[in-house]
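ARCHIVE CARD
SHELF: 3
SLOT: left
DATA:
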Amino acid sequence: MRSTRSRARAGLALAASLPLAAGALALGIPAAHADSDPHGRQTLQGTKPLWATPSADRGTVADSNKIGARVYLAGRDAKGLASYAQAVSDPKSASYGKYLNAKQAQERFGATKEQIAKVTSWLTSSGLKVTGTNQHYVTVTGDAAAAKKAFGTELHNYAKDGKTYHAPEKAATVPASLDGAVLTVVGLNNAPRLAHHDETLPGPSAVFRNAGPFSTYYGSNVNKDLPSAFGGHAPYAIKGYTGKQLRSVYGAKNFTGKGVTVAITDAYASPTIAADIQEYAKRNGDKPYRKGQFSQVLPSDYTHTGDAPGECGAQGWYGEETLDIEAVHAVAPDSDIVYVAGSSCQDDDLTDALHKVVDGRLADIVSNSWGDVESHETPDLAAAYDQIFQQGAVEGIGFYFSSGDDGDNVLKTGTKQVDTPANSPWVTSVGGTTLAVGKGDKYLWETGWGTKISDLSQDGLTWANGSFAGGAGGGTSTLFEQPFYQRGVVPDSLSKINGTAKPMRVGPDISAVADSSTGFLVGQTQTFPDGKVAYSEYRIGGTSLAAPVIAGIQALAQQARHGVPIGFANPAIYDRYGTGAYHDVTDHPLGRGQGIGVVRIDYKNKVDDKEGLKTTLRTFGGDSSLSATVGYDNVTGVGSPADTYVTSYIPGHRR
C-alpha cells in the first residue's frame, strides 16, 4: 500500500466527527465533537493527536513558525446530515432511497454564506491569512502565535517515529459565538504535511512482466517436474483472469452496468490511459469504449510526484489507475467511468477529489484503492472524510475502499490494526479472496486471501517452509463503534477486543478476488530497460483489484434495480447476509487439512530472463492472524457475490 499522508495504493499486490445525533450513534461514530467550556469557546475534540504525549513533548514551537491549516465547515445541520444519510441507506427505513440531488443537499445541509463569513472574519481577526474558501472549508496560513490566538492552544514539538513534528498541546477550541459552524481543523499537526510545489508528471513507469508457464484457468496447466505439494503436483499460476471469467463467477448474467456511472479516485493521472484502456479491451474481448464513456476530471497541477521519502511516486499510481478502470470496464462494460485525480497522495488532495464527485454528483459508485493504517488517522481527519461520505450517502452515492494488503498489519507496523478510510462506518470496506475459476468459466472455490511463499530448494527436490507474502486487510477498529448494520451479524469474538465493553466496527464488509497469483490481467504503456516505451500486459492483484471488481458488480446490481442508485450500500449488503446472494468463503474450501497452492515462475529482474528465474510455491488461505471462517469473518466479510447477488436487487425479487 501507498499511504496518504501519504496514502498508499491499497493494494497493488504484484506481489470523528462532530456530534452526529442518532444516526451517528447508530453507526458507531466516536464522540469527537465540539463541547462548550466556561470561557465561551467550544472544544474540537480529536484535534490533538494521540501521539502528542507528555513523554514525547520536546517544547513549545516558536511563535514565528509558519503553519497551514484547513478549517472544515460543519454546515447547517451536521446532526441532521448523519441521520438522513442513515435513513436513505437503510432498506428498513421509510426514507430508503429518497435521495437528494447535489443542489438540494447543499441547500439543506451545506454551510451558509453567513457561516463562511463568520468563520473567515474570526480567522483573519486572529492574524491568520485566508488563502482559499469553498463550501467545505477555509484554508489559512500564518504563524504559531496567530494559530494559538485562533485555536486557543500552544503548538508543541513532539517526537514520533524518530522524527519531530508539531501538534496542539491540547485540543483546539473555537469561539462559541460561531454557533457550531466549525466541524474540525486539520493541519495543526504536521506529521507529515509537506510544502506544495508545482510539478509535471513523469512518463510511463518501469516495465513489469510475468514469466510463464501459465494456466489459462485454475488447474489447466499442471507442472510435472517440480516437487509435489499437498499430495500432488500443483498447477501453474493463471496468466490473469479476464472480465469474461469474473462476470461468470460473480453472477453478472446479462447485466452490463448500463445507465450507471462509476467514479475512480486515485492520485495523478497516467498520460497514456486513454489509449491503454482501448488497447486492453481490444486484446481481451471486452466491449470497446463508446465515445464519451470514459472521462477524466484532472487538477490544474500536481505535487509530491517524486520517489524520495515523503513523496508519492507518481509513476506507481499509473498502474493503480489502469487496474481500476480496466477492472470496472471488464465487469460492467456499459457503465460510464469518470476518473477523478488528486494532485497528490496527500489527504488534502484526495479529499478534494472526493468533494468534486459529491459536489457535482459525478457518479453513483466511487471506487477507491488507497488508504493508510488506522494508527496514522486522527479524529479531525476522520471527521473531514466522514462528512464527505455522509454527503454522498444523502445523494445516493456509495464509496468503496480497499481493506488493505498486509493482513492484520503486524508485520508492517508491529501493531494489529485495520486500514483507513476503510474503517469508516460510512464506507464499504472491500476485502480479498483467492479465486479459482475452472474450465468453462465455472466457479470452483475461493479462500480468504492470505498467501504464503515457499522457495524451491537449491537441489530442486523440496519446498522451503512458507512465509507470509500478503493478505487481505481486516480486523477490528479501535476508533469506531459497531454500526447498526453489523449488529447480529458480526460475532462478539471479532467486535469486542482487548476487553472493550462495546462492540466495535469490524472490516471488511464484502470481498472479491485479490490474490496476485489468481489475479487480473491488466495492460498499460511502460518503459523498458532500453528506454523504449510500449504497451504490455501483466497479472496483478491486491484489494486494489477487489475494490473496482465490487464497484463493477454494484453497477450491475444498480442496473438490475431499474437504475435506482444503491447509495451507501452496507445496510443492503448486510440485509442479504445468510442468503444465497453470497459465497461463504472459508480458508479450507476443499476440507480442513487439504492445502491448496500454485507454482509461480517469476523473472528475477521483473522484465526478462537475463538474470534468471525464481520458482516458488504459493500456498493459499493463511492470512496472518486473520481467518476466513463459516459466516461473517474479518478477511472476507459477508463473503463474495454469488450467482444470485446481482439479481437479488431486482425489485420484488425473492432472495
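SLOT: right
DATA:
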Amino acid sequence: MKKKTKQKQIPNYLKKDKPTVVAYIILRLFVLIALVAALFRQNYENVFVCVLTLLLYEIPALIERSFKIDLPTTLEVIVLLFIFAAEILGELQSYYVKFPYWDTMLHTVNGFLFAAFGFALVDIFNRNQKFSVRMSPLYLAIVAFCFSMTIGVLWEFFEFGCDRIFGTDMQKDFVVTSFSSVYLNPDGVNIPVVVDNIADTAVNGQSLGINGYLDIGLFDTMKDLIVNFIGAVIFSVIGFIYVKGREKGRGTIARQFIPIVLNDEDIQKTETLQAENSEKQPDGKEENRP
C-alpha cells in the first residue's frame, strides 16, 4: 500500500536563511570587483585589504563549524555588513575621512557585536550540564558588557601601537579650540591653566592652518570607548531580556541577536533529516514499500 507522507523540513536555525546567502553573494561580489580594480591599478595595498575582507567573511562559518554554534540571520548579516563597512567603505573608499561619524558608528556596532559574542560564550557554559555553576541573567549581562569593553580597550591598544611603531594614524586627530593643563602653570602647582580661543597651531614656527589646537589621539580614543560602551550596554540589556524571556518560556526580539548553541541532539537531528529527505522522490512521496 502506498502512503503519502509530508517531507520533513530541517529547522530554520539549522540551515542558512536566504537573506544570509544573498548578503554573502552580493558583498563578496562587491569585494571581488574592488579587488580586480585594485589589480588593474596595481594598488597592492588595496588588494591586500580586499583579500583580508574575503578571509574575514569566512569567520562566521568557521565559528559555527568549530564551536557548533548557529548565528541568527540578523546577527550574521550585521557582522557581514560591519566587515564591509569597515574594510571596503572605510579603508578603500575613505569613508573614515569623508564622513566624520563613520568611525563612531562602527565602534558602536563593534561594542554591540562583541557583547553578543561574549554573552554567547558565557551562555554556552551556563547551559552546559557538565558545569554546576548557574549564572543569573543579570550576571550574564554584566559579563557580556565587560567582555565587549575589554575587546574595545585592546583594540585601542592596537591602534596606539600601530601609530607609535609604524607611523600610521589609526587614532584620528581632533581640532580643538581650548584645553587646560597644569604643565603650563608658572608656579608649578596642581592648578590648571586654561588656554582658550585657540586660532592656530604652529610646529617649528610653521603654521598648520587648522584654526585650532591639534589633539593627537586622545579625543578619538575616548570617543571610541564611549560609543563602545553604549553598544555594549544596548546588547547587555537585550541579552538580559532574552534570558528572562527564555526562563519564562517566551520568545523575544532578542533571539535575533543571540547565537544558538547546537547540542549533539540538534546535530544528529539535522543529519537524520537530511538523510531522510535524500531518500524522498522529487514529488515528496516515499518510495513504494510492501
